[in-house]
Amino acid sequence: MIRDSTFDLLDANYTTHVVDYLSLKDELRYKNSEETFILDPNYWEKYYRIINQTGCVFNWQEFKFDSRPDLDTLIPSDDIGIYLFIIKPPNRINDLPKFVVYVGISGEDGSNRPLKERLNDYLNYNVIKKRKKIHRILKKYYAEAYVSYTTVNVTWQVLEQIEEAMHGFFVPIANDRDFPVEIKSIKKSY
Q1: Residue 5: its pLDDT value, please?
Q2: What number of other Cβ atoms are within 10 A of residue 21's Cβ?
Q3: What strand order describes the sheet that includes 145-151?
Q4: What is the CA radius of gyration of the chain?
Q5: β-bridge mates for residue 146, sequence order
Q6: Cα–Cα distance between 146 and 68 in angstroms, integer?
Q7: Residue 15 carries which DSSP code?
Q8: Are 154 and 51 in contact (CB under 8 A)?
Q9: Residue 102 — very low, low, confident or very high, per pLDDT cuts 50/70/90?
Q10: Helix 2-22 × helix 132-141 angle, to 10°
């Protein structure tokens, strides 16, 4: 079955990377585990308000990235939507910690590409490998990676506004573009 062979390739490649990462000496692993997150209450307030003003209703669902999901079953419609890559350990306190590392949408520029099709791209190792920042994250946290997603009933233009606002709200470390202008200019200065 194609789906199984695709996942075998994902599992084989990422499991090898994770084992290598986890076997590093404590000092090296500690340094390699360091990630920089932006925590800015002004951004949270501003971009939450923008997302809320769109009137979009979110029905968030989630799957573990390595769970071999059947996206046709999980997302039976051909609707567009938004997705978040989240890293979280299996053992959490008060459902914490969890880190949004990537925000994406389907249906960009009016393509009407369904969410399930877009997510299927990420289940292909050769496609993920080209997305260097996501690939780097998965090489360390494959077993802790989750995808949270929701289909939406808004135009693609509104969905792009929501995506940009979510980039401003989360400032995800694996995204390169689609940030609000004020954040883009700040990121360029560093």
Answers
A1: 59
A2: 16
A3: 61-64, 145-151, 81-87, 99-105
A4: 17
A5: 64, 86
A6: 12
A7: H
A8: no
A9: very high
A10: 70
Backbone angles phi, psi at 141, to 5 degrees: -125, 30
Report which secondary-structure segment, H or E, holds 182. Answer: helix 181-188
Task: Name residues whose C-beta falls within 8 Å of residue 111's C-beta, 6 or more positions apart in sequence.
Answer: 156
pLDDT tens readout for residues 112-170 = 999 999 999 998 888 899 999 999 999 999 999 999 999 999 999 999 999 999 999 99
Please provide the average confidence, as pLDDT, over all residues in the chain.
91
pLDDT of residue 187: 81
18, two tokens: 């994770």
What is the 3 state secondary structure string of 108-129?
Answer: HHHCCCCHHHHHHHCCCHHHHH
* pTM for the structure as a whole: 0.91
C-alpha to C-alpha distances, 97 to 52, 88, 91, 122, nearest whole angstrom: 24, 6, 9, 23
Q: Return the structure tokens found at 96.
A: 């914490």
Which tokens sit at 131?
A: 């997305």
